[in-house]
Specification:
Blueprint lengths: L1 E7 L2 E6 L9 E10 L2 H8 L5 H4 L9 E9 L11 E4 L36 E5 L3 E3 L6 H4 L2 H13 L8 E4 L3 H12 L5 E4 L3 H9 L4 E3 L5 H8 L5 E6 L4 H10 E9 L11 H6 L3 E4 L6 H10 L9 E6 L3 H10 L6 E5 L1
Parallel strand pairs: 8-9, 8-11, 9-10, 11-12, 12-13, 14-15
Antiparallel strand pairs: 1-2, 3-4, 3-6, 3-15, 4-5, 5-7
């Protein structure tokens, strides 16, 4: 079958791979759509710290996908050939301390489809049957491909313990930033402010329900202070992963407020802890999702939230190598690009 694989930094190539054979408890999913994640683009372009360097790497990436069950291994119950599903990429062990204490997202034994084992930049993908969540019909295949990043955003808001009516500042208007905006709105946020350098993304943020957008040509934190009469945001979500936006998130947050780090920081970040202490602020990290994955599927596939404005375009698997190159050059022009193998 056809796959698209990482060959070397800046190069993806089409590769033929053996047909996956499902073992006991496994299924083969014929991939319908797979989202291109910022972390895959990062891996593709990275010369420095990366999943490769950390030894968590699989050349056939792709972890945000939907499809139909094409083959079942021994002992699989509750799924049939042709069933339409969205795949939870983090197959966890289910038995360790973290898995049994509501923190399966940090299970050290998770398999990680698209990270540790071959992902969905392929015609077919082998997963554990337990990774498959049903979706109600073919008309949801496209939107449900955003279940994974939307689950990340829902968890970012949950980790920030957002209460209804609170002012939320989101630094970054990429897919995670804008999905966090949708999640915060859905959970009853008050004023939502998004900072973003690209005009098209600021425009989309407004369309998705942001109250204010800030061009990062000016210091975003000053503008947030101005918009909140000097108070600052109750909760800030950093959704980029670079020092300037983390600086903004810290400076835009009120005393005793919370800051959630949702961006992937490759490099160390320096912070004046005394400043944090005297303002009694909390910085919280967020990683993946637990119950948020099923919640994201439910919210998308019931039509309660509409993630379709984030789908910029759909490309064929053959076009994935050029699409990666193109998105690396001009990432701000896109939100979510889906691959249709
Ligand atoms: Zn992702
Ligand atoms: Zn575990």
């Amino acid at each position: 079958m056809k796959t698209a694989a990482f060959a070397q930094p800046g190069v993806m190539e089409l590769r033929d791979a053996p047909e996956p054979e499902p073992g006991p408890g496994q299924v083969v999913v014929a991939v319908s759509l797979c989202g291109i994640c910022g972390s895959d683009l990062h891996e593709y372009a990275a010369e420095g710290p990366s999943m490769r360097a950390a030894g968590v790497f699989q050349p056939v990436m792709g972890h945000e996908f939907t499809g139909a069950i094409a083959a079942l291994g021994e002992g699989v119950e509750g799924l049939r050939e042709g069933d339409i599903v969205v795949v939870h990429p983090g197959a966890t062990c289910g038995t360790c301390w973290h898995c049994t204490h509501g923190a399966a997202n940090v299970c050290a034994q998770q398999i990680g489809t698209g990270y540790m084992v071959p992902g969905a930049y392929a015609e077919r993908c082998l997963v554990q049957a337990s990774q498959c969540l049903a979706i109600p019909g073919e008309e949801w295949l496209e939107r449900a491909a955003l279940t994974e990043p939307f689950a990340v955003a829902l968890r970012a808001v949950n980790r920030g313990q957002m209460k209804p009516g609170e002012t939320v500042f989101i630094a970054g208007g990429g897919p995670i930033g804008l999905l966090s905006l949708i999640a915060a709105r859905r959970k009853g946020a008050g004023t939502i402010i998004v900072s973003e350098p690209a005009a098209s993304r600021r425009e989309l943020a407004l369309q998705l329900g942001a109250d204010h957008v800030i061009d990062t040509a000016q210091p975003a934190s000053l503008k947030v202070r101005e918009l909140t009469k000097g108070m600052g945001a109750d909760l800030s979500i950093e959704a980029v992963g670079i020092p300037p936006t983390m600086d903004d998130a810290l400076a835009a947050t009120r005393r005793a407020g919370r800051i959630v780090i949702a961006g992937s920081f490759d490099l160390p970040y320096t912070i004046g802890l005394l400043n944090l202490i005297v303002q009694e602020q909390s910085i919280v990290a967020t990683f993946g999702y637990v119950d948020e994955f099923a919640e994201a599927r439910d919210l998308i596939c019931s039509g309660e939230v509409d993630v379709s404005p984030l789908i910029s375009r759909t490309v064929a698997l053959d076009d994935l190598p050029t699409t990666f190159a193109d998105m690396t050059r001009s990432r701000n022009d896109y939100q979510k690009v889906l691959v249709r193998p």
